[in-house]
Amino acid sequence: MIPKSFVQDLLNRLDIVDVIERYVPLKKAGANYVACCPFHNEKSPSFTVSQSKQFYHCFGCGAHGTAIGFVMEHAGMGFVEAVEDLAKGIGVSVPQEASNTPQHKVAPDLYELMQTATRYYREQLKKTPRAIDYLKGRGLSGEVAARFGIGYAPDDWQNLKPAVPNYLDASLVETGLVVEGEGGKRYDRFRDRIMFPIVNVRGQVIGFGGRVLDKGEPKYLNSPETTLFEKGHELYGLFQAQKAIRAQQRVIVVEGYMDVVALAQHGVEYAVATLGTATTPYHVQKLLRLCEQVVFCFDGDRAGQKAAWRALENALPQLQDGKRIGFLFLPEEHDPDTYIREFGTEAFEAQLDDSLPLSGYLLRELTAQLDLHTPEGRNTLLQKAQPLLTAITAPTTALLLRKEVAALAGVTQAELEALYAIKPVAAPQRAAPAKAKRAAPSGLRILLRCLVMHPELARELPAEWQAEGQEGAAIAALADWLRESADETSTAAMIQHFQGTVHEAVLATAQGEVMQLSGEFDVAAEFSGVLRKIRIDAIEAEIAALLAGNLGGMNKERYSRLSDELKQLKAPAA
Ligand SMILES: [Zn+2]
Asked: Dihedrals φ, ψ of 443, to 5°?
């Protein structure tokens, strides 16, 4: 666990303008910096960076966050990875807080060792005509082989012995390059195999996949999980594909590294592969951060069908409205490698365009083999759909699928929601941006703006402070958070803390508004003014309710107390 105070400190030391400029050139515009948004296609810049507040906000697509958030989104890194990357950039090391999970301490020499092995395997490939012929036979050019760092592990037990400083060093076993047999005898894990280095998003080799050249078992052999390599987190080819994924706003997830490489050879450079595991929720989240559309491409056989369904199950909680997930099933005798070699790039991309949307795939599988003309069939549908529908949190997607399943089962949406004991989703309210801008912001909105500018102000809220709605909840959460920490906090730390929480969206709106405020916004005056106004409104509303009802003894007392408070609030400041 990275200590919270470190994150806060890191955000204080970084300058978001420097961080973003490493990826996107920024132009000064008034108090802020602007650029064409790296997260959506646009011709005039709506991506805005506030240097004073250390956050960014895109008025086109709504992307927002801190320097850490930017690196996560832009490079597809996880939180820890992004923090480590940024800390390294300014020469600070990340302290670790003791926690129950064992710490992954990665000595830099493990990466170096993997790099040494990669170089060695690459050299061996050049010296081995049989391996070169194999790759040529699969249609690979030297260029693509070099791009993916493909090599060859010779058919010997201790290939790496002359390549590394000390074959007996523990690091060789730790990285999975070498296996220790009974009696402590060591030998190379990979022998007589084409070697595919597995690279993390920073371009460091963290593992290998090895494929046999002809017959032999297993056909594919991967590095074991090590301190460097966590299978459920990594995707083969992501490092090489990142740029194309951004440009095309699309990524294909295939089953094997040979598929990734073959697709790249044919100009489809936005493919990645899972590494001998099912697609995990983490994978889906990582990919959805990078682009608009994820297409899972599986072989047409039974194993492929099963893998696709697992991918669907793991994708459901990660769905985001407006982002698309598709499924492509190739003819049974094909995988992406053989398909693109036989039919070419255009035919393959046409297949991608026709991929089955997630909702279509879900409904097709749910209703397969069910007779929906019978109550029993409809009952089974409702049972099968429950865990899937309840896993979806994206409001529009959830709404549409609930409606469809309800219609198929012959019940209403409300009945389905009651049956599943899930909260109803209403049609999302279409915000009319032009109109919303003209309407005067509510008191809570102004309060939120003040808090985005000076989170510390939340300490001045009355302890029992509460208000309704999402804005009220966000303000209350902010106040709670500040009460728990003694340190002075910054806007960026606040944004970072609430990233990924239910309050993120409300705060993001306020961040966007703050970006557009002119210099005349007097935070302290606005803050106390609006607090007073909110209190007056609340008292007046309660008084009105008291007057409309029956004024019993208790109520009378309350009434006079409220009236007094109101008088004081309304009295001109002395
Ligand atoms: Zn944008």
From this structure: -60, -40
Calculate how far, in angstroms, residue 45's C-alpha sits from the geometric centre of ligand 1. 9
Residue range 447-461: mean pLDDT, rounded = 89
* Alpha carbon of 59 to ligand 1 centroid (Å): 7
Q: How far is the CA of 288 from the centre of ligand 1 (A)?
A: 15
Average pLDDT over residues 499-525: 82
440 or 226, higher pLDDT: 226
Could you report the per-residue pLDDT of 244-261, keeping only the tens digit for each?
998 899 999 998 899 999
H-run or E-run covering 8: helix 4-13
Distance 21 CA to ligand 1 centre (A): 16
* Residue listed under structure tokens 């895109």: 58
Q: Domain 369-420, CATH 1.20.50 — does that match?
A: yes
CA distance 168 to 565: 80
Distance 20 CA to ligand 1 centre (A): 14
Residues in the chain: 574
How many whole angstroms from 210 Cα to the centroid of ligand 1?
Answer: 40
Measure the CA–CA gap between 457 and 475, rounded to whole angstroms: 11
The helix (run of H) or strand (run of E) holding residue 295 is: strand 293-298
pTM: 0.61
For residue 265, how far is its CA from the centre of ligand 1 (angstroms)? Answer: 31
> In sequence order, which ranges of 22-137 are alpha helices (DSSP H)?
67-75, 79-89, 108-126, 129-137
CATH code given to domain 441-570: 1.10.860.10
**CA 414 to CA 418: how far, in whole Å?**
6
Domain ranges of the chain: 4-89, 108-222, 238-363, 369-420, 441-570
pLDDT band, residue 98 (cuts 50/70/90): low
Please give the distance, rounded to the nearest whole angstrom, from the Cα atom of residue 58 to the centre of ligand 1: 5
Q: Report pLDDT for 433.
A: 41
Longest dimension (CA), the chain: 99
Cβ neighbours of 488 (radius 10 Å): 11
Rounded to the nearest angstrom, the distance between the alpha carbon of 29 and the centre of ligand 1 is 17
Q: 28: CA distance to ligand 1 center in Å?
A: 17
Split at pLDDT 50, 70, 90, the class of 435 is very low
Q: Which CATH architecture has domain 238-363?
A: 3-Layer(aba) Sandwich (3.40)
How many whole angstroms from 39 Cα to the centroid of ligand 1? 5
Tokens representing 468 are 């309704």
- Straight-line distance from the first to the last Cα atom of the chain, in angstroms, rounded to the nearest whole number: 52
